[in-house]
């Protein structure tokens, strides 16, 4: 019994450690007071300011665009690559999977810097360079989500379809696609969250005047914190909550084992 | 024949990676080994031994090790408790402990800055209780604290996954054969979760070693990590050659620590059976 309550207490402490900062952010977003931490009554004015602030809204738009576009493109390239890798010999597969893992494990700051060095040689830094960079670090997540599904899918059914006269494309749509669809979807969602969360790579590859939420909050924080940031945090936390609930308990309910991506 | 055609689907990916992973690394190598006028030099690499750079690298290593250690100590018992829970509730509770990982990285830093600042929440609380104020913002302590907060879920998840895969039969068999709780822990649970621990350590150590945003925002310019030195070389001094040289050194450190980890991982995994 003592052991049981010790466990409970431990869980509670870690839980508080993880959520207290978030809870305080949420409370402060409704706080009608200039001095940061005194409670001055309930207000929604920071939310109103937030939605009328063009800098924040522009950064919000950029973030959504970059994460959706990069995840879509990465899903396309990654799924094709996974289909190709699946058809390879065992030895080549191992090499390909190893090579796919490398960018995942590299330090963000090095990834960002190395791409910046390349981009400035050929073009101006801007929205496109951020998009290319995000696609690049997103592709491995898609491949590593789709490949296990392909391995599980039955090869004989596909071959039977071909023997019965189906074209490879028709057989793919009717047989392989339904089997790998959950993997493609979770790869897409994972790529999107990685892109939403990224700071370092965006910081080095973005042009002047372009900001995602991460880089904007970084700049803001160096100047000091505005209460509008608390309102923004609350909204983003709720978005993350909804997205993650959907991923875990939604139609494609499949555990996201990020930990299994590294060797 | 058909297989060969299908393998071609990897083509666009390979081209993309050659262009945007391999070529950029070549660029770093080029800048690292040349002077601003394009002549060959080793000075950018050897400048890591300059006292200011060396100090930053050693501080980064120290803080990253500290952060990884704290995360491991916090996460391991937590994973054990989570695995023992009733299956029906488990999914949701694990979800709760993973959720903060998906909240924007910058917002998590923002939260801690607000809690720790001199007129922040913690100090206001201490003040109303007539306790002395805490002055931790702009110290290495604040940086480690925030790193632990940021990276803890990355440690919890792989250890939990490894622990959840342990068959209860194995533990029961050991108990039937007379093993006590301590023997079971060291002979079964620790070896079988080693792979999870290893990937947790890499997933915490590498970002902690290379981060520059946390030390920048919570260290107030007083905590200079190797990431900050590199960032400043690029964004403030516009000395790309020096920045590339130091990045290359950092990359070698990351690769070396990962190689060390994966060799340890193999031993741990093979020693079990």
What's the rounded overall pLDDT mean of chain B? 82
Give unreliable regions of chain A as ranges: 254-263
Span between termini of chain B: 42 Å
Distance between the termini of chain A: 39 Å
Basic shape of chain B: globular
Count all strands of chain B and give the number: 0
Overall body shape of chain A: globular
Given the structure, what is the number of helices of chain A?
11
Percent strand of chain A: under 5%
Number of helices of chain B: 13
> Largest chain interface and its two residue counts?
A-B, 87 and 88 residues
| Secondary structure: number of strands of chain A | 0
Global mean pLDDT of chain A: 83
Largest sheet of chain B: none
Plain-language structure description:
The complex is a heterodimer of chains A (263) and B (273). Chain A has 263 residues and is mainly alpha-helical. Chain A contains eleven helices and no strands. Chain A has helices spanning 2-28, 45-52, 54-86, 90-105, 108-122, 127-152, 155-163, 168-197, 200-205, 213-223, 227-249. The longest helix of chain A is centred in the N-terminal third of the chain and has 33 residues, at 54-86. Chain A starts with a helix and ends in a 14-residue tail after the last helix. Residues 254-263 of chain A have low confidence and may be disordered. The two termini of chain B are 42 Å apart. With 273 residues, chain B is mainly α. Chain B has helices at 2-7, 11-32, 43-46, 51-84, 87-98, 105-116, 121-128, 140-164, 168-176, 181-210, 213-218, 226-235, 240-270. Chain B contains 13 helices and no strands. Residues 266-273 of chain B have low confidence and may be disordered. In chain B, helix 4 (51-84) crosses helix 12 and helix 9 runs antiparallel to helix 10. At the A-B interface, helix 1, helix 3, helix 4, helix 5 and helix 6 of A face helix 1, helix 2, helix 4, helix 5 and helix 6 of B.
């Amino acid at each position: 019994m003592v052991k049981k309550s010790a466990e409970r207490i431990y869980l509670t402490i870690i839980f508080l450690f993880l959520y207290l900062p978030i809870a305080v952010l949420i409370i402060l977003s409704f706080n009608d007071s200039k001095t940061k931490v005194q409670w001055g009554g309930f207000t929604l004015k920071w939310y109103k300011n937030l939605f009328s602030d063009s800098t924040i809204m522009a950064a919000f738009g950029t973030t959504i665009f970059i994460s959706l576009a990069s995840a879509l493109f990465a899903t396309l390239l990654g799924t094709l690559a996974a289909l190709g890798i699946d058809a390879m010999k065992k030895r080549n597969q191992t090499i390909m999977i190893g090579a796919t893992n490398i960018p995942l494990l590299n330090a963000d700051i090095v990834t960002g810097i190395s791409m910046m060095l390349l981009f400035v040689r050929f073009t101006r830094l801007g929205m496109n360079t951020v998009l290319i960079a995000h696609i690049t670090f997103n592709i491995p997540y898609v491949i590593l989500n789709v490949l296990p599904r392909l391995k599980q899918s039955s090869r004989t059914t596909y071959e039977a379809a071909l023997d019965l006269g189906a074209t490879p494309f028709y057989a793919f749509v009717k047989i392989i696609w339904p089997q790998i669809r959950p993997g493609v979807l979770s790869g897409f969602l994972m790529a999107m969250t990685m892109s939403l969360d990224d700071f370092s790579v965006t910081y080095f590859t973005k042009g002047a005047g372009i900001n995602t939420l991460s880089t904007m909050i970084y700049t803001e924080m160096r100047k000091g914190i505005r209460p509008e940031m608390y309102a923004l945090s609350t909204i983003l936390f709720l978005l993350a909550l909804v997205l993650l609930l959907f991923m875990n308990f939604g139609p494609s309910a499949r555990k996201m084992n990020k930990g299994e991506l590294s060797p | 024949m058909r297989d060969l055609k299908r393998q071609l689907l990897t083509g666009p990916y390979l081209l993309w990676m050659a262009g945007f992973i391999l070529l950029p690394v070549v660029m770093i190598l080029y800048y690292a080994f040349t002077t601003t006028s394009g002549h060959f030099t080793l000075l950018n690499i050897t400048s890591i031994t300059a006292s200011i750079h060396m100090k930053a690298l050693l501080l980064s290593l120290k803080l990253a090790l500290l952060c990884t250690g704290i995360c491991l100590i916090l996460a391991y018992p937590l994973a054990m408790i989570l695995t023992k829970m009733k299956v029906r509730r488990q999914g949701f509770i694990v979800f709760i402990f993973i959720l903060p990982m998906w909240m924007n990285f910058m917002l998590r830093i923002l939260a801690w800055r607000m809690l720790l600042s001199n007129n922040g929440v913690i100090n206001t609380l201490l003040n109303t209780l007539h306790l002395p104020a805490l002055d931790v913002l702009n110290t290495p302590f604040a940086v480690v604290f925030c790193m632990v907060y940021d990276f803890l879920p990355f440690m919890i998840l792989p250890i939990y996954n490894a622990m959840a895969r342990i068959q209860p039969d194995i533990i029961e068999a050991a108990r039937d054969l007379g093993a006590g709780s301590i023997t079971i822990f060291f002979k079964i649970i620790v070896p079988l979760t080693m792979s999870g621990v290893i990937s947790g350590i890499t997933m915490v150590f590498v970002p902690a070693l290379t981060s520059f945003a946390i030390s920048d925002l919570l260290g107030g310019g007083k905590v200079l990590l190797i990431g900050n030195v590199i960032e400043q070389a690029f964004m403030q001094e516009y000395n790309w050659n020096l920045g590339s040289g130091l990045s290359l050194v950092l990359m070698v450190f990351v690769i070396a620590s990962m190689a060390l980890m994966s060799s340890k991982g193999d031993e741990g995994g093979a020693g079990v059976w």
